[in-house]
């Protein structure tokens, strides 16, 4: 392993002679400013004290370890990659510790680390494990290099006033400017891209500009390399967020992109408050912060598109964004999120949030049923959340009627997820990737991300003729979003209606999902998939679920000693057929146990011309020699028809207590489902027994036969 030489005692003395410790700490001028530092110096106790101590530990441990700057060698997750990540976080922590304490040990450390990088960077060629499209020098991809510069520019800003003119010039000319130039002029295809990689790049270059007085860098960051406004930070704010603050790649990447957006915006606000950046586009950045919070359940982000499922609201990006949002809004309900994060940003906003929590004045955050429009103009579908109860143990239906989500998008228009009792019950696979686990394909997205996770059958939406939507043609998918037809709320139910007629040629799909909220029993879901086609197709409707199957009522059920794949491509090659049974026209039922609650899925279909309907039980694991896939399970409802309706009710019920050894209400409440066409549309009546009957009334639109209106009627309730 080639390492840059550790700083010698003689070099440390040289730094002192150059003036490293001669100046008093000046206020920083990027994300943190005079108000932030003043608040941090005066405050103590609560989560703030915990966060201050954590920062000091990072800085002290880094100083004890010395200056370790390895020659770049490894891809993501490897030693050199992780060491350079530790270094930028350590520089940031030490610089902040210097601002708070005035202890010159911390400014010396930052000076020595920056000097080591300034010695090395001019010698670097492209990284040996470089990604073909976006190579870095310190890291395998330039994205990581941009993140490094976002942190490093702030560390420099917090201690630069302690440097001599000679040292400042060397660090700027040998390090900060070369990295900024490489990320901008050196990679225009990334810098000018409307994408989270571009956001990190423009934030990094713009922050270097503010920290060093380079107005040209700031202009490039704001308006693109040609400074005409066709790219750059403003254009990214215009195009990457919908009017509701939804980021088109989904909440996992919204969380990741949030850091450069809010940090660079705060730097703009500090240096050029007249730009009023947080008011830009009707306060789009604040909307984005709130939307990121709300696209979560029980602390974890909803796994939309290429999402890694263990990311949640405790991430550093959201800790920082929360404090900035509070600084602007003084919204006390944000303290509820900070309480759950169990730490606060080291900033004035973090100090204020810590004080609210310490004084017992936390206001609960309200998670609403809501439509989050997709697309810059809000006309590319929507992600719709239907909620009942709180966000930790209540009920949540996620209806994904969105756009593709660019390259990180999945082919899953009109899919859904269901959360209840603190668990993900009807599941989405998320991404097939083990981030930074070098043994799993170097931490890259796995091959199975394309062959399984992105395929339509990997999601809870209709598959036509065992093919994925748009034949997995990304360009075509990007041009054809789903449509959010309607969102209806009343005291009985919240309802989402989505539609798409471009995913499969000659097939129009409409999905109506209602979260019904009775007074005396648990909320339940009505799900109706309406299929319109002039020709016969094979329709598969998967349901991926967590839990242990309890029972089912399928006819002629057969299990198999030898499990075989369900197909050869489009995700089917990974699905092992465990058993199957014939489905009746209506009142088929599957019950499973998840946690301490039972879930029953009662379903049927309506079609004038249809062959035998079947239900197939599957488990993942076929054609997976490297054991990359989780052993998830589900069922596929299969029907061959032209136009058809596939309907269902999903109900939580009962309780299982293994400790006290009792079971309550383990059987489904649904007595029957009755679906019938009417002159104006259709009706689905759900008989829940004990005098509880609900009817979903569907009404056709005026222009065509698509169902565009819906209402749930509570016919009776004892």
TrEMBL record:
The keyword Lyase appears for this protein: yes
InterPro entries xrefs: Alginate_lyase_dom, Chondroitin_lyas, Hepar_II_III_C
Organism in which the protein naturally occurs: Gilvimarinus xylanilyticus
Chief place where the protein resides: periplasm
Protein name: Heparinase II/III family protein
Signal peptide: 1-25
Domain Alginate lyase residue range list: 67-276
GO cellular component term, pick one: periplasmic space
Compartments, as annotated in UniProt: Periplasm
Pfam families according to UniProt: Alginate_lyase (PF05426), Hepar_II_III_C (PF07940)
């Amino acid at each position: 392993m080639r390492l840059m030489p550790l700083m010698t005692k003689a070099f440390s003395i040289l730094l002192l002679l150059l003036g490293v410790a001669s100046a008093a700490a000046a206020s920083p001028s990027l994300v943190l400013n005079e108000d932030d530092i003043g608040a941090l110096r005066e405050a103590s106790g609560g989560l703030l004290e915990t966060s201050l101590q954590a920062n000091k530990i990072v800085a002290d441990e880094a100083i004890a370890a010395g200056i370790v700057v390895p020659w770049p060698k490894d891809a993501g997750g490897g030693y050199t990659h992780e060491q350079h990540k530790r270094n930028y976080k350590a520089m940031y922590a030490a610089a902040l510790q210097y601002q708070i304490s005035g202890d010159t040990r911390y400014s010396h450390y930052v000076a020595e680390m920056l000097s080591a990088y300034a010695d090395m960077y001019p010698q670097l060629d492209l990284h040996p494990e470089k990604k073909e499209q976006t190579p870095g020098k310190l890291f395998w991809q330039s994205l990581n290099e941009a993140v490094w510069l976002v942190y490093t520019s702030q560390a420099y800003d917090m201690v630069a006033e302690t440097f001599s003119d000679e040292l400042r010039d060397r660090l700027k000319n040998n390090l900060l400017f070369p990295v900024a130039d490489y990320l901008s002029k050196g990679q225009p295809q990334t810098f000018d891209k409307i994408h989270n990689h571009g956001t990190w790049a423009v934030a990094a270059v713009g922050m270097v500009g503010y920290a060093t007085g380079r107005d040209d860098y700031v202009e490039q960051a704001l308006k693109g390399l040609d400074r005409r406004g066709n790219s750059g930070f403003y254009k990214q704010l215009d195009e990457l967020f919908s009017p509701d603050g939804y980021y088109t790649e989904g909440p996992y990447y919204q969380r990741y992109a949030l850091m450069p957006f809010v940090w660079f915006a705060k730097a703009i606000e500090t240096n050029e408050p007249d730009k009023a950046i947080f008011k830009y586009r009707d306060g789009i950045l604040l909307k984005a912060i709130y939307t990121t919070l709300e696209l979560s359940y029980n602390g974890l982000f909803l796994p939309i598109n290429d999402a890694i499922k263990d990311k949640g609201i405790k991430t550093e990006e959201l800790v920082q964004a929360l404090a900035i949002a509070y600084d602007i809004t003084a919204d006390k309900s944000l303290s509820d999120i900070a309480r759950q994060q169990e730490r606060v940003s080291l900033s004035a906003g973090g100090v204020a949030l810590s004080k609210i929590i310490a004084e017992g004045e936390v206001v609960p955050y309200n998670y609403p049923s809501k439509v989050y429009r997709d697309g810059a103009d809000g006309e590319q579908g929507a992600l719709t959340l239907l909620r009942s109860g709180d966000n930790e143990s209540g009920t949540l239906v996620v209806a994904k009627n969105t756009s593709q989500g660019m390259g990180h998008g999945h082919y899953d228009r009109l899919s859904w997820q269901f959360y209840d009792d603190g668990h993900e019950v009807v599941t989405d696979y998320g991404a097939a990737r083990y981030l930074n686990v070098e043994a799993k394909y170097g931490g890259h997205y796995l091959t199975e991300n394309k062959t399984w996770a992105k395929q339509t059958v990997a999601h809870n939406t209709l598959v036509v003729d065992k093919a994925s939507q748009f034949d997995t043609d990304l360009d075509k998918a990007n041009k054809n979003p789903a449509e959010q037809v309607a969102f209806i709320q009343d005291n009985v139910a919240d309802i989402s209606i989505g539609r798409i007629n471009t995913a499969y040629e000659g097939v129009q799909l409409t999905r109506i999902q209602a979260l019904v909220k009775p007074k005396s029993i648990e909320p339940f879901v009505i799900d109706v998939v309406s299929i319109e086609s002039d020709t016969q197709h094979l329709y598969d409707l998967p349901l991926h679920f967590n839990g242990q199957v309890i029972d089912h009522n399928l006819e002629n059920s057969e299990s198999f000693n030898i499990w075989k794949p369900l197909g050869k491509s489009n995700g089917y090659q990974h699905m092992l057929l465990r058993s199957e049974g014939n489905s009746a026209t209506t009142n088929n039922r599957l019950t499973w146990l998840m946690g301490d609650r039972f879930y029953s899925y009662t379903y049927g279909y309506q079609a004038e011309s249809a062959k035998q309907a079947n239900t197939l039980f599957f488990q993942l694991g076929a054609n997976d020699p490297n054991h990359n896939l989780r052993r998830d399970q589900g069922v596929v409802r299969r029907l061959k028809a032209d136009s058809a309706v596939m309907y269902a009710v999903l109900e939580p019920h009962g309780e299982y207590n293994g400790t006290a050894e009792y079971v309550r209400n383990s059987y489904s409440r649904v007595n029957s489902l009755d679906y019938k066409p009417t002159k104006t549309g259709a009706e689905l009546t759900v008989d829940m027994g004990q005098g509880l009957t609900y009817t979903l009334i569907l009404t056709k639109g005026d222009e065509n036969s698509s169902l565009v209106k819906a209402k749930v009627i509570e016919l009776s309730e004892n």
